[in-house]
Amino acid sequence: MIKLYVKYKKKIILAMIKLRLKRYGRKGKPSYRVVAMNSRDRRDGCALEELGFYNPRTNQIYLNIPAIQTRLQQGAQPTRTVQHILNRAKII
């Protein structure tokens, strides 16, 4: 399990790494990047690593499979949507 220690106002906070979607694209035409992020960060905040791309309009999926498998072995937890994408790609 990856544990990220963040120093915030002289407190040490234990945070979990999640695999989730980061939104890109124009208004009404979304596309997403699959990223590894601190679970406490905003959806469009700074990502630790970009792991792939997903376009729901054209159903285009690109995944960096070795990097995703490494993150999963380290203990990162995918969100439901990312887990569905990984199941379709037969990674999980």
Automatic annotation (TrEMBL):
GO terms for biological process: mitochondrial translation. It comes from the Eukaryota. Coiled coil: none annotated. GO terms for cellular component: mitochondrion; small ribosomal subunit. GO terms for molecular function: structural constituent of ribosome. Keywords: Plastid, Ribonucleoprotein, Ribosomal protein. Belongs to the bacterial ribosomal protein bS16 family. NCBIfam families: S16 (TIGR00002). This is Ribosomal protein S16. The lineage of its organism: Eukaryota, Glaucocystophyceae, Glaucocystales, Glaucocystaceae, Glaucocystis.
